[in-house]
Amino acid sequence: MIRIEHLQKKFGNSEVLKDINFKVEKNDVVVIIGPSGSGKSTLLRCVAKLENATSGDIFFNDTKMTEEDHKLCELKGKLGMVFQHFNLFPNLTVLQNVTLAPILVKKIDKKEAGKDAKYLLDLVGLKEKADAYPHSLSGGQKQRVAIARSLAMHPQLMLFDEPTSALDPEMVGEVLQVMKKLANEGMTMIIVTHEMGFARQVSDRVLFMDGGHIVEENTPDELFDHPVHQRTQDFLAKVLV
Amino acid sequence: MTSFNFQLVIDYLPYFFKGIIYTIGFSIASIVLGTVLGLLIALGKMLPNKLLAAPFKGYVGLFRGTPLLVQILVINFGVVPLILGKSNSIVAGILALSLNSSAYIAEIFRSGIQAVSEGQGEAAATLGLTPNQTMLHIILPQAVKIILPPLGNEFISLIKDSSLASVISAPEVTYWAQAMNAQYYRVWEPYLTSGLIYLILTLSISSILHSVERRLSVND
Ligand SMILES: Nc1ncnc2c1ncn2[C@@H]1O[C@H](COP(=O)(O)OP(=O)(O)O)[C@@H](O)[C@H]1O
Ligand SMILES: [Mg+2]
After folding, report:
1. Strand A188-192 to strand A157-161: parallel, antiparallel, or no bridges (unpaired)?
2. Which of B122, B127, B136 to mutate to test binding with chain A, by most A CBs within 10 Å of its CB?
3. What is the pLDDT of residues B18-54, one digit of tens each?
4. To the nearest whole angstrom, how far is the Cα of A70 from the nearest Cα of chain B?
5. How many whole angstroms separate alpha carbon A152 and alpha carbon A158?
6. H-run or E-run covering A225
7. Is residue A193 lining ligand 1, measured as CB closer than 6 Å?
8. Is residue B145 part of a domain?
9. What domain count does chain A have?
């Protein structure tokens, strides 16, 4: 589904991603963990084309993603992204948040889009909030709407950048539950998270990043129980107190 | 100062009313044109290509860096005759006020647009919206709420600044005050009356704006 080869990203002189290589197959759930500043967000943002890589290639379904616009348009909607701070559109209702892209980008008829949106809002448990504005929702509800909004484009791959890090602890569960549901339905996902228990439960593979490198990559059980690298061991010792 | 002659003011009131129509007309025409132009200039100034953005930056610098009075004179005696073949104080007044206010309004738009968080644009981009769709459906509707108060202030400034059009004999309030002064050799009656008219206009506009703002903020 997605293949990353020798990806490098520099901001000015600082090299934030160094020779990143990995693959995500269809139906895979890949979790990325690592200390803050290790380049996890930058990696996701390169995949989502919010940042342009300095060098290296990203292949999406074996097609090389370039900076050219028509390729970008081809990509659009095939790849959903969920942000730490939700980024819901405050000027639109929940329903409009979800239907906007299908109507504008896919030119789907408004009624049809509304029907699909209702189904998706039901999926994330927020059917009754369709006509509410984002400001009236809790953080957990906002993030679930954001997930529904991404799903409305029926993406082939979903990217999550610390989707629960901005939430109050009691709301983390409801968002993780929706993500679990997606994983069980076979959605291909790359998830950056600090929720280690969740990572272990849903992921097929875990990548540990540090200093712009992928230091270690393994199945969750292996990586959490038998980390090979010293840096992985140190990191896990800190977060799994 | 001899005593204030109310009868003179009452006699002259029809001219002041005519002036008020022009003052309001100048201000409304200029805020509308200035807003449309200001939005385009703001978008131009924010073009990622520095070379393409440069003329828009130059425009804002020019109109904010020179006195409005000078702009009015140049446009009335230079630009408008060049285009129309003769000077026309009404066209020149509206043109000068619109161009001048558009430079200020462009800055209002730019700061309003930039105040909408970057995450909004990124969310829209990952959903596949084009930059134009994002601007139209996401950024501008949010920017409008931020922009409205300073835009209201700009309108109030325009009402006051339109008095400068009297130097090119545009028949707005100040022009008639000067005419009254010349006719009766009186100072207090014409100028205090014109001042009072401006005060009433600006106070009523600002109270209208306040109630609009209050209504708009309900959804926050
Ligand atoms: N737009 C940017 N400009 C400059 N430096 C950046 C930018 N975005 C991220 N960085 C830097 O890149 C490094 C990795 O950041 P990030 O990918 O956000 O890490 P993580 O998500 O793992 O915490 C950090 O040192 C950060 O300061
Ligand atoms: Mg991050």
Report:
1. parallel
2. B127
3. 999 999 999 999 999 999 999 999 999 999 899 999 9
4. 12
5. 12
6. helix A220-225
7. no
8. yes
9. 2
Mean pLDDT score across all residues of chain B? 94
Same domain, A49 and A104: no
**Where residue B188 sits, what CATH number does that domain have?**
1.10.3720.10
Q: What average pLDDT values come out for chain B (220 residues) when binned by 10 residues?
A: 85 96 97 97 94 97 97 97 94 97 97 93 93 94 91 95 96 96 94 97 93 76
Which residues contact residue B186 at a Cβ distance below 8 angstroms, ignoring those fewer than 6 apart?
Answer: B5, B8, B180
**In terms of CA atoms, which chain B residue is nearest residue A150?**
B127
The whole domain housing B144 covers: 6-217
**Cβ–Cβ under 8 Å, residues B96 and B76:** yes
- How far are the Cα atoms of A57, B118, B218 from residue A163, in angstroms, in the given order? 26, 17, 29
Within this chain, do residues A148 and A91 fall inside the same structural domain, yes or no? yes
- Give distance in angstroms: CA of A139 to centre of ligand 2: 18
What is the total count of domains within chain B? 1
pLDDT for the residue A67: 66
* pTM of the model as a whole: 0.86
Indicate if the alpha-carbon torsion angle B124, B128, B133, B137 is positive or negative. negative
Asked, for residue B1, whether it belongs to a domain, the answer is: no
pLDDT tens by residue, A84-98: 999 999 999 999 999
- Residue B213 counted as domain residue: yes
- CB < 8 Å from A in window 152-171 of B: none
Q: Both A98 and A206 in a single domain?
A: no
Q: Where are the alpha helices (DSSP H) in A124-168?
A: 139-151
Are A60 and A42 within one domain? yes
For residue B215, the model assigns a pLDDT of: 83
A162 and A220 in a single domain? The answer is yes
**Residues of the domain holding A200:** 2-78+156-240
How large is the ipTM? 0.92
> Concatenated DSSP letters for B12-79?
HHHHHHHHHHHHHHHHHHHHHHHHHHHHHHHHHHT-SSHHHHHHHHHHHHHHHHS-HHHHHHHIIIII
The response to whether residue A203 sits with its C-beta less than 6 Å from ligand 1 reads no
